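Sanity check

After download, print the first record. It should look like this:
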Amino acid sequence: MKIAYLITRMDEYGGAQVHIRDLSTWLKSKGHEPVVLSGSPGRVSDFLEHMGVAYTEIEDLVRPIQLLQDWKAFFQIREALKKHQPDILSCHSSKAGLLGRLAARSLGIPVVFTAHGWAFTEGVPSAKRALYKLIEKIGGWFSHHIITVSEYDRNLALRSRVGRAEKMTTIHNGMPERPVVQEKIIRSEADPARLIMVARFGPQKDHETLIRALARLKGTDWVLDLVGGGDDSDIRHMVQTAGLDERVNFLGEREDVPELLEKADIYLLISHWEGFPRSILEAMRAGLPVVASDVAGVREAIARGETGYLVPKGDKGALFNVLKTFISDREKQQEMGKKARERFVSNFTFSVMADKTFAVYQQVVDNTPVDKGDSQKTKP
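Expected structure tokens:
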């Protein structure tokens, strides 16, 4: 099968970019013909070309809404699809999702849209939420099928009338396996607990609440690694003002995130909104317990009280209370980390996600009803 992927940009390592990278290389290894289309080529598209995956740049495809440029991008996408003649188009991200679905439909190409968290989810500013809800309702009319990465997002789409139930399937994200993580050595009480958060600095992530909670824990021994790009100037200033310079490390974007996770004790993801975060799955794969904001599909990844803790969005008091005892309890960290690893293996491996995703592609191409099977069930 020839599968085209369309996404707005490929110059950053976000969840959607990694999803396309892993699926397209997997499909190529299985004898299929993946091709990737995007604006803003960069590190991810370079990697794909190195791996022998066909890539086409859509020059006028940009993230902001620019009507004239978007009109040009539509025709560029259409020409690329005519050139490659895929059996199916898989769209990712809101802008590319709408333009791609319109272009594919105009050529009679079946199209699937994967929502990596809706842009109209709870926590997104109201004006933006209303605009993107309208965009996705329009896009829903031109989709043969929609994949959501969490059951939360599927239910949100149904409530918002983005599409019919029979046209939507939940397939949780999955991560490629790594060598089995050896049992972590419990550090002595003399060693600081190593905390880590992998998240781009921006409106979606709530580094501020995390720093305010940790500022109240100066009497507890910990260090924090913040991994991710974006403008971190405000958070750096907050760290300096709180006198945490020696405890908080700003590591920027890194390509050795799996190794960093395997050296840590606790994973943190404090957010205003999410879809179904891949970074949590990476942490679970590394045998880390997770402390995260209780938003959207996060609760479908974490078994509350067994593999980690969920805290109300923006509640620095609740976050402080969890971290106050958990940071010092090394045995609890190890116990929950082992259960997190087991949960990852049972529910969130890449092979499970890839097989379910390809099954949807095949059924859409064959014009047969998509078999939901157990794609919407996660083991407790």
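If your output differs, re-run the checksum step. Summary of this record's structure: Residues 307 and 335 are 8 Å apart (CA to CA).
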